[in-house]
Design a protein that fits this description.
Elements: H1 15-20, H2 24-34, H3 41-61, H4 69-81, H5 84-91, E1 103-108, H6 116-122, E2 126-132, H7 135-147, E3 153-157, E4 167-173, H8 178-185, E5 189-199, H9 204-208, E6 214-222, E7 231-238
Parallel strand pairs: 1-2, 1-4, 2-3, 4-5
Antiparallel strand pairs: 5-7, 6-7
Helix pairs in contact: 2-3, 3-6, 3-7
Length: 246
């Protein structure tokens, strides 16, 4: 007589389950907590609405090759959310009364607005400009700013080389080599500002190819919930700029 098998213990819900069960804001809050990012329910709702806009516009504008909602959450939104805590640590300053000091960030080759839109939602003190040479992508970024009522976000159709206004942070995500990224965006960097380059594996060859005027002061590994892949941030400064912490 066959023995009855023991029932398996209930499986812990995953991020994929949450997305498929239409619990996206909850999945975002769960992922954010694992990334040490404190989000309000309103911010989680904005991030969920933003992801919905990416899915909707992607059908016509081809903003991203990722189509699956669960993959959009992990590969795009949480991947971008992973830079928020490191960015706050890097800024490391407060204004009057202990409030977070405002700063300007330029997201170069922003595409669907990653990570720029995510930063704008999570950090109201950041004035974020997403720039892209593709007009329809810049139009989408601007539509996000309007629809989600984000006064600290704007989309700009331009080449980064044409931007001369100073930004304390110039960011990119899978945009170009470090040498090209820093060369093309040097005019947009404020004195004492930093470059924040999101990469996959540690880009040793790209770092070795940097010009003498640019130096890496930190390579920060990232662990993105639900994403089994290497991620890191490469932090850079102008070689004659102030030392980190000064």
């Amino acid at each position: 007589m066959a023995m009855a098998s023991k029932p398996l213990p209930p499986r812990e819900p995953t991020l994929v389950d949450a997305v498929r069960n239409a619990e996206l804001p909850a999945a975002i809050l769960h992922g954010a907590s694992r990334l040490d990012v404190a989000l309000s329910d309103a911010q989680a709702d904005l991030l969920a609405r933003y992801l919905g806009m990416v899915q909707k516009w992607n059908k016509v504008y081809n903003l991203t090759a990722v189509r699956d909602p669960a993959e959009m959450l992990t590969h795009h939104l949480l991947d971008s959310l992973a830079v928020v805590a490191p960015l706050l640590r890097q800024r490391g300053e407060a204004g009057e009364g202990g409030a977070a000091a405002p700063f300007r960030m330029l997201d170069v080759g922003a595409g669907a607005g990653l990570p720029g839109v995510v930063v704008a939602i999570c950090l109201p003190q950041a004035r974020v400009t997403c720039v892209d040479t593709v007009a329809k992508k810049a139009a989408f970024q601007q539509q996000v700013a309007l629809e989600l009522r984000l006064p600290n976000l704007r989309g700009l159709h331009a080449r980064v080389e044409s931007i001369a206004e100073g930004h304390e942070v110039v960011a990119s995500r899978a945009f170009a080599s470090l040498a090209d990224f820093t060369r093309w965006s040097a005019g947009a960097l404020a004195p004492g500002g930093v470059w924040m380059a999101m990469k996959g594996r540690h880009p040793a060859e790209e770092i070795a190819a940097l010009p003498p005027g640019v130096r890496v002061f930190h390579v920060e590994p990232l662990a993105v919930p639900g994403l089994d892949a290497e991620r890191c941030i490469v932090w850079l400064r102008e070689a004659d700029g102030p030392q980190p912490g000064n």
